[in-house]
Every structure is written in C-alpha cells, then in structure tokens.
Amino acid sequence: MLDLEGFEVPCLLVTIENQYESVKNVALTEVKKFDLTRREAEIWFLYRSNYSYKEIATKLYITINTVKKHMKNIHTKRQAKMSYD
C-alpha cells in the first residue's frame, strides 16, 4: 500500500498495466470456465488479443473455415455455461 499522506503537494498516481498479461489472464480464466480444448484455447486467446479470423488462421496454419468452426464451438460452450449461471 502506498502512503501519500506525508506529501505536502498533491500527487498523481499512475499505474501501468501490461495489456498482454491482462488479456492472457482473462483468456485463461475463460478457457477454464468454458472448458475449452487446447486448440479452442489457442484460438480464443488470439481472438481476445484482437486478431482477425484471417490472422488467426495464418498464425495457426489452419483455414479460416476451421477458425470459424472453432469459434462457433467456443460460443456454444460460452452460451451453455452462461445459461447455467
């Protein structure tokens, strides 16, 4: 905890967040929550990192249709889990 009471002038506290780590942590939590497969997890992480379907396909050496299929499965799992909560 940072104690700023000893300062006589106003202070501005700036925090720096590692966006990659933040996205990674959220994605990992979602992978567990939605019980995604390893491949779905790879695709989900890239999707959460703002990669396009085309970029995901290129990076993982798969077709865009394969990415779409995995994303459909991921969304189905997410919707099923959300309806239980």
Which features does this protein show?
4 helices; mainly alpha; elongated; 65% helix; 85 residues
Question: How would you characterize this protein structure?
Answer:
Helix content is 65%, strand content 0%. It has four helices and no strands. Helix 1 packs antiparallel against helix 2 and helix 2 packs across helix 4. The protein starts with 18 loop residues before the first helix and ends with a helix.
The beta-strand count equals 0
Could you estimate the helical fraction of the residues in percent?
A: 55-70%
Question: What's the total helix number?
Answer: 4
Oligomeric category: single chain
Query: Which series of helices and strands comes N to C?
Result: HHHH
Please identify the structural class as seen in this structure. Answer: mainly alpha
Low-confidence segments, ≥5 residues, pLDDT <50? none
The largest sheet, given as strand count, sense and whether it forms a barrel, is: none
Give the CA-based shape: elongated
Overall pLDDT level: 89
Rg over CA atoms: 19 Å
